[in-house]
Amino acid sequence: MKLDQKKIDLLYQKAKDAMQNSYSPYSNFKVGAALLTKDGKIYTGTNIENASYGLSMCAERTAIFKAVSEGEKNFEALVVIGETDEPISPCGACRQVIAEFGVENIILTNLKKDLKIMTVEELLPYGFSGKDLNDQNSDNR
């Protein structure tokens, strides 16, 4: 599904605003995300660090988990923003979560508003999904 510029601009601003709530005292690397559901709701997220680095949470997963915890599972778009030279790139864990929930449009950006719009397949080629588990279980019967 093609996103119109008005939606992209709104999601960009929401992600940028969310970035300001980042809790990143260790890396000082702020990231924001805005997730649009197919029925028009927007959920935002930011990165939240922890002194035990493995317990930190990325902005993308924060937004997705907030939405899913509220009963949402149908997503049209996700914008991720960071203070990077090029559009920010999600980590592998975030790519897997984005794929799990089938976000249709992933928009990677930065404070200069350079945009890279991708599909899940482009973001995570050969991704692992529940279908792989179902296929594996049916082979073992």
Topology:
Blueprint: H1 5-19, E1 31-37, E2 42-46, H2 59-69, E3 75-82, H3 92-100, E4 105-110, E5 115-118, H4 120-123, H5 130-139
Parallel strand pairs: 3-4
Antiparallel strand pairs: 1-2, 1-3, 4-5
Question: Could you list some keywords that capture this structure?
Answer:
141 residues; alpha+beta; Cytidine Deaminase, domain 2; 5-stranded mixed beta sheet; 35% helix; globular
The proportion of residues forming helix, as a percent range, comes to 25-40%
CATH architectural grouping: 3-Layer(aba) Sandwich
Could you give the order of the helices and strands? Answer: HEEHEHEEHH
CATH class: Alpha Beta
Low-confidence stretches: none
Fold-level CATH name: Cytidine Deaminase, domain 2
Shape: globular
Count of alpha and pi helical runs: 5
DSSP E strands, number: 5
